[in-house]
Amino acid sequence: MHRKSYLTAFTTLFVALLFTLWPAPTAQAAEKTYTIGTDVTYAPFEFANEKNQYVGIDIDLMNAIAKVEGFKVNIKPVGFNAAVQALEAGQIDGVIAGMSITPERQQKFLMSDPYYKVGVVMAVKQGSKIKSLKQLKGQRVAVKTGTAAGAYALSVKDKYGFSTVTFDDSNNMYQDVTTGNSVACFEDSPVMQYAINTGMKLSIVTKPANPTGYGFATNKKNTALMAKFNAGLKKLKANGQYTKIVQKYLGTGSKKSQAAANKKNQETDRSFWGLLKANWGTLMGGLQETLLVTIVAIIFATIVGILIGLLGVLPNVFARGISTTFIYIFRGLPLLVLALFIYTGVPSLIGTKVPAFVAGIITLTLNEGAYTAAFVKGGIEAVDVGQMEAARSLGLPFGKALRKVILPQGIRIMVPSFVNQFIITLKDTSILSIIGILELTQTGKIIIARNMEGFKIWTMVAIIYVVIITLLTWFSKWVQKKVQAS
Fold this sequence. Notes:
Number of helices: 19
CATH class of the largest domain: Mainly Alpha
Structural class: alpha/beta
Transmembrane segments: 291-314, 326-346, 457-475
Signal peptide: 1-29
Oligomer: single chain
Largest sheet: 6 strands, mixed
Protein name: Glutamate ABC superfamily ATP binding cassette transporter, membrane protein
Subcellular location: Cell membrane
Strand content: 5-15%
Distance between the termini: 86 Å
Radius of gyration: 29 Å
Low-confidence stretches: 1-29
GO molecular function, one term: ligand-gated monoatomic ion channel activity
């Protein structure tokens, strides 16, 4: 009996402990979280308002569907191209970004039921004499990469005899027309109308063509998420919430109601200082991300660069080969290509997600590390060869001679290059906006998508870069004087 009592007590304790540690099937645990990629500059479907909160028809619709279907979403505003590539690589679960349903996309992804019907329109500069496609012969037209409107323009350009120039975001495409570099641009009708109501000096001159619908995209295996989206969309249309979301950003269809809807999401003061005041916090957030990425990347790049540079001066053919190959490959690869390869190419190979921040650090580490290795190697080789020979003749081994004699002299040559490389890395972070890192340049794009004040916002961004780089340049000169004086 005594042994049975112990056994019973032990069993009871074990079962109690098991139920304590095992997570209960709560509603919170049952709610799956999906990562959804979206664009950053496609108002009124997705953009950041004056409080730097992501809003728009797509954002509100996705959140509303998640609520009625009992799941959670993590919205990642990374840009249209980056979102599509991330979905292909398995980095995210879905894309909602004003994505037209096309046969090509249906072959690659699961596409939802259409949630908004659109057509492609052509817009020209206000006052332009061009009123039809026939007048485009011999002219240049602006399009946005990866869009159905861009695909439509390419499909008719031979028929009407015009050439195209491609841009990554809508604002730059619009500005190319307003400045007269291109005579027209092609855009989805609601997006173009929103830009015009916001103040863009363009006019729509054609009726909507190539009618299609926007759809939500997932990979072929994610049938569960697609079923939830379609079911949620039907519920929202039935209870009237879908109509409320659309009218919030586009009004009831009249120009007056559209202008009123747009005004709610715009800054009241559109002067330079008014925009600077309204967006100061957002710009500083972008600068903070830029500095963080720069500092972390330069630390790793310096470590990698020194190691690879030292390999290049060792009396070993294999070591020097590794150094030369590393410098040749990563200094020769364009930074944009390297970033996309690491963020979208590598995950598809290894089957593991690579966060955008990590991909950005790896990209800069490899690229800037190659340049650092080159000037480390060059700085050591710039020291008179007689210094090494003299040290070796005194009985010092190679490693000690390198550390005690050569490196102290080589560092004086390298220090200015180290600081200059910091400046170069700071500027190179702007390229990482392509993979969705919200650094200063990407922040500028996001602000412009809301207010279409490209010249004023880019002036602010340029001034911030100039101030930071000027400070770093002064620091570089101060360090150089200190090293030379020592």
